[in-house]
Amino acid sequence: xxxxxxxxxxxxxxxxxxxxxxxxxxxxxxxxxxxxxxxxxxxxxxxxxxxxxxxxxxxxxxxxxxxxxxxxxxxxxxxxxxxxxxxxxxxxxxxxxxxxxxxxxxxxxxxxxxxxxxxxxxxxxxxxxxxxxxxxxxxxxxxxxxxx
Length: 148
Description:
Distance between the termini: 86 Å
Shape: elongated
Structural class: alpha+beta
Strand order of the largest sheet: 1-2-3-5-4
Oligomer: single chain
């Protein structure tokens, strides 16, 4: 991560992915903040890149005309520049997303107890399904068929 000073930035006139530059917030929307970088180039800091914590309103953290240091995340062919404020801070370490695992159920019930419970629940579900299906069709028992 190299910090580029303003003079070097103006000489190169290019944005380098991974560099940290200073900019000024020029606009705030629901989804992010627009930051003007040196040379008049504007990039977007997505709301998820504002802070390490949950951000509901960007205005709770920054306001228009605030000076901020941003890290350049991406430069698209169409000119769009992705920026991050939280990754530009010293000591930033990316947080790994944890996937929620189902809790392991440790039961001391025997196999026979588990099988018995499964069969009972299965029979109850089948009975409920049968009742539900018959109620949708209307009861069609053999006595109604003989009458027709």
